[in-house]
Design a protein that fits this description.
Blueprint (H helix, E strand, L loop, with lengths): L1 H14 L4 E4 L5 E2 L1 H13 L8 E5 L2 H15 L5 E3 L3 H11 L4 H9 L5 E5 L6 H12 L3 E7 L12 E5 L4 H23 L2 E2 L5 E2 L1
Parallel strand pairs: 3-4, 3-5, 5-6, 6-7
Antiparallel strand pairs: 1-2, 1-7, 8-9
């Protein structure tokens, strides 16, 4: 067990340098820090323009979506929502098909200039892909977070595509959460002068 635990954390820490970020259609790879800055610049303008962030994800990614939607509006003062209410999900799945649970909500609630954050460990979940495609139709900015196969289809749909090169659900989910946290914390620290290392105290 000791050797497994050591290996576990060694593998986890080694992933950060291998994370790939691309822009739309995988045309260009971006340095990781530059991609974080680009995301911060996009989300920092949302409130001024009356825009919002929408998070979509299944399972563990749904939990990340709920967690971060709250953090972004409570700590970041950015309007942010997700569609994880059980009545909503079961209604849309029953009436329109599970593959459309997010695309229908995105079509109803997004507008041009909103940001839709699409999270899928595999990058192959049909409902997330359909949600991203619908967001593109309505003129949203799209950030995707995926893992597993580097050729997954979700990576081709975002303005910024964060890919975690691991086949471990745990590693992929933790890095997705960490990166989304880092985007908000960079905004808070660098633009809002909040010390995110000290419980978001004013600097």
């Amino acid at each position: 067990m000791h050797s497994f635990i050591s290996q576990y954390f060694e593998r986890f820490s080694g992933i950060k340098e291998k994370i790939e970020v691309t822009n739309n259609f995988l045309k260009h790879k971006l340095p990781f820090e530059n991609a974080i800055i680009a995301a911060v610049q996009i989300i920092s303008r949302l409130k001024k323009k009356n825009n919002k962030i929408i998070f979509i994800g299944n399972g563990g990614s749904a939990a990340i979506s709920s967690h971060q939607a709250v953090d972004y509006w409570k700590n970041g003062a950015i309007p942010a929502i997700t569609f994880n209410d059980s009545s909503l999900l079961t209604c849309i799945a029953n009436d329109c098909g599970f593959e459309n649970i997010f695309s229908r909500s995105v079509a109803m609630f997004t507008g041009k200039g909103d940001v839709v954050i699409c999270i899928s460990s595999s990058g192959r979940s049909k409902n997330i892909i359909n949600g991203a495609r619908e967001a593109k139709k309505t003129g949203c900015k799209i950030f995707t977070f995926s893992g597993f196969d580097k050729n997954n289809p979700l990576r081709k749909l975002g303005d910024l595509n964060f890919y975690v090169p691991s086949n471990s659900y745990g590693f992929v989910e933790i890095y997705h959460l960490l990166i989304i946290h880092a985007i908000l914390d960079t905004k808070l620290y660098c633009l809002d002068k909040m010390d995110v290392f000290e419980k978001n105290k004013k600097r």
